[in-house]
Amino acid sequence: MQWSRRRRTHREELAGEIVARTGELNLAEKLGSGWGAVLKPPAWQGLLCNGISQGNRVMFTSPATWLPAWKGSPEPEAAAAIVIPAYLGAHGRIADNFLAFWLQVLIRYRGRSRGPR
Question: pTM value?
């Protein structure tokens, strides 16, 4: 699903649009869940993020709403080269097993399909 820059939508509207595009009626209930498990993959792929809430309604938008130069999620290696030194610079040393855990996550992630860009 392509999002226009600056577009915001609430969960029910997003669910309705996804159901209309896919024809998968069973997705409406899953997308409407407050836990948002079905929305995590598009968020991890850099396609969706939180917008400014309207009252008690959670809003969603494209990352390009917040970052006009957004071109999609970076490759894990490129992200790690920025995130790991930034984390260590902000928080100092970490236990070797903690760093090893996150490096294993990175290695496992490398082989996965990241969906459309």
Answer: 0.60
